[in-house]
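Pilot study result, target chain (224 residues):
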Amino acid sequence: MKQFSVRAERYIAKLKKLNEWTCDKETVIEYFENQDFPVFKPLVRFQVRYSGLELSIYNNKEEAFSLSLFSKKGIKDKEPLDYLVENGNYWFDCGIHARAQFNFYINQIGEICAESGGNINIIYSSVEMMIEEYALIDSLSSWYEDSCYYDIQNTEKLNVIMVQEKFRSIKECCDQYLMCATNGSVTVIKGTWLNRPESYLHIYSENETKGKQFIERLKKEKIL
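Predicted structure:
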């Protein structure tokens, strides 16, 4: 299991958690076993540690995400497990985004996906990575946020410019679906689109001028 950064630990400590979506480890294991379903550790961990958490970003209610797997009532009433099977994976509904009109699922190895129209698209390697990104964005709430999410036309040129601009990766917020980096005055998030496996670029900066200057350079280089 991924170890949280100090930033993420502090972020989690201030979050609201809905009691009706929580239970202890023994209860959820018994819930699986009573239905002859394999006990997958990432699903148990999600239920015990994160189900019921309300992920939020200061002054941005539209990006709130409610993490939820199994309700106390559903477990008590022994409701049948409800999941999708796709390409050998079990996908369980794991929460609701305040704005995005997608379904969100977790599979048996802990990957998080967005689904719409039957298309399942993985966006995080784990819920821990998702929480790390939320913690990072929340910490940038006083910064300027560019309103656009950009398609990336040339990843290699983007990497070169980021080296030139002295960006360093924020390692706790990086996996195969997410890359966050900063040079101290501009922070970039290269994430995965909800509806397709390609990447987008989203930018935060200390002030509007620095952010727009960086974006204009990327556009001039035909990266965005």
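One observation from the pilot: Helices lie at 6-13, 25-33, 41-50, 72-76, 127-139, 155-164, 208-220. A full batch analysis is planned for the follow-on phase.
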